[in-house]
């Protein structure tokens, strides 16, 4: 149906739920149905039903279950990435709180569709590669790095997926051989991606005095430091 | 707990002390422990720590998972009283020998 240009307004105000103010005959007059009839020669205008498209002959299956199976309601929900804290904007220096790189100060690049934050050391400065980090395990500082020279469009969650392991056919001999001999070498193109991202970043980092050594140093709580009073 | 290399020792947790279980004069309820967090002295200061994870780390004679150290995880749930003491629930109740021992109050899940 074509969308209506004016919203539907009822001419029959409700006294209470289920009871209108005007009777059926009064509403007939209010809606002007007598005028529609008069315009059409004493009868209501009729529209011929639209011709139905010829339905293809459905093949009836021989087997169907004895009782009706309940079909679950369709779920049309789409997950949105977690809301990014106001303190975290592209170029912010973050402190990682847990994991292998705990205490490291790291530059935030962008939020991925899964909600995780894409982050880089830069690798040359503090050894943190391009990595995903959860927002809950991170403190956003007020230090910002200029990130305009960096192109992060090619990184998404699929980039970080584990490489599919090729399935070895299980033979008896292979159990006794050292199966996992080949160490997982980082593919060269990932190393190159790291270099390109870091090149632009390191330039903007070196422009600010002391920022490079700041990023290289780790954060730690010292005696007398109270996190609830610290301003990051 | 095991570090592959000798890294920098960074402390990213606040020290806390286990005071005991939630209790009245003659009854104690071991499902909730009371923790005194260093440097936290009022009910208002506790709100920063609410929801933060806690770890009670202890040593055992037998190696499990390659280490003599074991850990019970928990969370800060709410303040206890007006002076900065905190109630915490652990995955399994803290053992009575933990009273007076240190507990680590981490800074995650973080909100800053």
UniProtKB/TrEMBL annotation, chain A:
Where the record annotates domain Large ribosomal subunit protein uL6 N-terminal, the positions are: 5-59
Q: Which GO terms describe its cellular component?
A: cytosolic large ribosomal subunit
Q: Where is this region: Disordered?
A: 174-194
Q: Name one GO molecular function term.
A: RNA binding
Family annotation (CDD domains): KOW_RPL6
Highest taxon, organism lineage: Eukaryota
Q: Which Pfam families match?
A: Ribosomal_L6e (PF01159), Ribosomal_L6e_N (PF03868)
Q: What is this protein called?
A: Large ribosomal subunit protein uL6 N-terminal domain-containing protein
Please give the coiled-coil regions recorded for this protein.
none
Indicate the family of this protein. Belongs to the eukaryotic ribosomal protein eL6 family.
For the biological process aspect of GO, one term held by this record is: ribosomal large subunit assembly
Native organism is: Linum trigynum
Record-linked InterPro entries: 60S_ribosomal_eL6 (IPR000915), Rib_uL2_dom2 (IPR014722), Ribosomal_eL6_KOW (IPR041997), Ribosomal_uL6_N (IPR005568), Translation_prot_SH3-like_sf (IPR008991)
Asked if the Swiss-Prot or TrEMBL record annotates the protein with the keyword Ribosomal protein, the reply is yes
Q: Which Gene3D superfamilies match?
A: 2.30.30.30
Q: Which UniProt keywords apply?
A: Ribonucleoprotein, Ribosomal protein
Automatic annotation (TrEMBL), chain B:
Q: Which GO terms describe its biological process?
A: translation
Alphabetized SUPFAM superfamilies for the sequence: Translation proteins
Assigned GO CC terms: ribonucleoprotein complex; ribosome
Question: Mind listing the GO molecular function terms for this protein?
Answer: mRNA binding; structural constituent of ribosome
Q: Which InterPro entries match?
A: Ribosomal_eL33 (IPR001780), Ribosomal_eL33_CS (IPR018266), Ribosomal_eL33_sf (IPR038661), Transl_B-barrel_sf (IPR009000)
Q: Which Pfam families match?
A: Ribosomal_L35Ae
Q: Which UniProt keywords apply?
A: Ribonucleoprotein, Ribosomal protein
Which family, according to UniProt? Answer: Belongs to the eukaryotic ribosomal protein eL33 family.
Q: What is this protein called?
A: Ribosomal protein L35A
């Amino acid at each position: 149906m074509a969308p209506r240009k004016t919203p539907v307004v009822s001419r029959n105000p409700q006294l209470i739920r289920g009871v209108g103010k005007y009777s059926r005959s009064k509403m007939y007059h209010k809606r002007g149905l007598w005028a529609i009839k008069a315009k059409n020669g004493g009868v209501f205008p009729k529209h011929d039903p639209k011709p139905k498209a010829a339905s293809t002959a459905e093949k009836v299956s021989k087997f169907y279950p004895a009782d009706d199976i309940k079909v679950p309601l369709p779920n049309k929900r789409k997950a949105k990435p977690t809301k990014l804290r106001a303190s975290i904007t592209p170029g912010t220096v973050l402190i990682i709180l847990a994991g292998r790189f705990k205490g490291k100060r790291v530059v935030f690049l962008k939020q991925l569709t899964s909600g995780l934050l894409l982050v880089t050391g830069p690798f040359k400065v503090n050894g943190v590669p391009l990595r995903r980090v959860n927002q809950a395990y991170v403190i956003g500082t007020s230090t910002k790095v200029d990130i305009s020279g960096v192109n992060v469009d090619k990184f998404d969650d699929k980039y970080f997926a584990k490489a599919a392991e090729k399935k070895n056919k299980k033979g008896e001999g292979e159990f006794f051989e050292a199966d996992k001999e080949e160490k997982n070498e980082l593919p060269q193109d990932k190393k190159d991606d790291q270099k390109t991202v870091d090149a632009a970043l390191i330039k903007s980092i070196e422009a600010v005095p002391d920022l490079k050594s700041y990023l290289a140093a780790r954060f730690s709580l010292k005696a007398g430091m109270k996190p609830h009073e610290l301003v990051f | 707990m095991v570090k592959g290399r000798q890294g920098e020792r960074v402390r990213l947790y606040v020290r806390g002390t286990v005071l005991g279980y939630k209790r009245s004069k003659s009854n104690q309820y071991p499902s909730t422990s009371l923790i005194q967090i260093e440097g936290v002295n009022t009910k208002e200061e506790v709100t920063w720590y609410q929801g933060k994870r806690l770890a009670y780390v202890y040593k055992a004679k037998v190696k499990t998972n390659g280490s003599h150290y074991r850990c019970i995880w928990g969370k800060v749930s709410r303040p206890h009283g007006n002076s900065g003491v905190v109630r915490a629930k652990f995955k399994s109740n803290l053992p009575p020998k933990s009273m007076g021992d240190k507990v680590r109050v981490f800074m995650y899940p973080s909100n800053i």
